[in-house]
């Protein structure tokens, strides 16, 4: 499902114009991205959590040059679904 599909589905279910729904969806995503960039987690009860995870420093290999490189610690965005969300997917997807 793409962002356009989501906009169409919400517009169909609510009767709100697609342009308004698209602006709302984009504002929602921008708000979540902005929050994560600031290091703040976003919790949506019954849906899941958008969290910032810290990745530790690690040693990796560049196999083409046969050298070792060090990847510094860094932060990445992550999504953790709620238990009710996971349960619904487990029980309904076959």
TrEMBL record:
Gene3D superfamilies, A to Z: IHF-like DNA-binding proteins (4.10.520.10)
Classification via SMART domains: BHL
Pfam families linked: Bac_DNA_binding
Source species of the chain: Carboxylicivirga linearis
PANTHER family in alphabetical order: DNA-BINDING PROTEIN HU, DNA-BINDING PROTEIN HU-BETA
Keywords: DNA condensation, DNA-binding
Family of this protein: Belongs to the bacterial histone-like protein family.
SUPFAM superfamilies on file: IHF-like DNA-binding proteins
Name of the protein this chain belongs to: Integration host factor subunit beta
Organism ancestry: Bacteria, Pseudomonadati, Bacteroidota, Bacteroidia, Marinilabiliales
Signal peptide residues on this chain, from the entry's feature table: none
